[in-house]
Specification:
By secondary structure, this protein is an alpha/beta fold. An 8-stranded parallel β-barrel has the order 1-2-3-4-5-6-7-10. A two-stranded antiparallel sheet has the order 8-9.
């Protein structure tokens, strides 16, 4: 498993590699522009080259670019849909420029008008965006906590979107531990997690799972509220050991989005070791 964090791109996108190296990570996630503004950032070619060179030097094995928070491909507002498409297009362009492995995005919310109608709006844009991916760069839908009409609260919704674009081979998934917990999946319970992973495998295939967001939660199981907490300090707490040690996740990048220092990455590593010991003991007892 790779361990890393979402880091700032302040001062130039290549600074993200410097920052993740400082906290001893070998995976990184970064915004390619301000997450709360539609206007894309223009990155100088030499800055993109420095990113690629520093990545090789720092031995960072996975790079994810997170799309801005304003994206809503399911909006009824044509202007919002157009801006969302343009923002994702720009993110994919930059991701190709830095040889990233994934662009992670929230599909958006239908705000109550219905999931089926939302799929009809989202699918054509998704097909066009997927044309910008490569064998190495995937577009990854992130699961959601399930508030309101957000899309991705369940694997079935992500599966429906995948089916709507003909099962495109470079449409992936990013699973967030906090979001799964908030949507009702007890990631701290081995049996519940096994069931959820089996559902993911049956509906989409584990080969589409490209990265993990490892966040604790400030809100209870099934709350449908997305409130991240520091790893090991929230309501999931030590239960994140179960999530991090699941065999299906063994080769994935685990990216923490709410963190303070290198200690947070070390805490993830320790939780994974603890979870593997527990899983081995549980297997023996059965």
């Amino acid at each position: 498993m790779l361990f890393g964090a979402h880091v700032s791109a302040a001062g130039g996108i290549s600074k993200a590699i410097d920052r993740v190296q400082e906290i001893r990570g070998n995976a990184v996630q970064v915004f390619t522009q301000s997450p709360r503004m539609w206007r894309p950032t223009e990155h100088a070619p030499e800055e993109l080259e420095r990113f690629r060179a520093r990545r090789r030097q720092a031995r960072v094995k996975h790079v994810s670019c997170h799309a801005l928070y304003l994206v809503n491909l399911a909006s009824r507002d044509r202007t919002i849909r157009r801006q969302s498409f343009a923002a994702l297009h720009a993110t994919l362009d930059t991701a190709r420029g830095i040889d990233a492995d994934a662009v992670v995005f929230h599909v958006g919310s239908h705000l109550g008008y219905g999931f089926r109608e939302a799929v009809k709006r989202v699918a054509p844009m998704l097909r066009d965006l997927l044309e910008l991916t490569t064998d190495d760069l995937w577009l990854c839908m992130e699961n959601t906590a399930g508030a309101g009409g957000t899309i991705g609260r369940g694997i079935d919704e992500l599966e429906a979107l995948c089916d709507a674009v003909g099962g495109h081979p470079r449409l992936g998934v990013c699973i967030d531990s906090c979001h799964w917990w908030a949507s009702g999946v007890d990631v701290s319970d081995p049996d519940a997690l096994d069931t959820a992973v089996a559902e993911l495998d049956a509906g989409l295939g584990l080969e589409r799972l490209r990265c993990l967001h490892v966040n604790d939660s400030k809100t209870p199981l099934g709350s449908n509220r997305d409130r991240h907490d520091y790893v090991g300090r929230g309501l999931i707490g030590d239960g994140l050991a179960t999530f991090l040690s699941h065999p299906a996740f063994a080769q994935l990048p685990a990216l923490v989005e709410t963190w303070e220092s290198a200690d947070d990455l070390e805490r993830m590593r320790a939780l994974r070791r603890r979870g593997r010991r527990r899983r081995a003991a549980l297997s023996r007892s059965r």
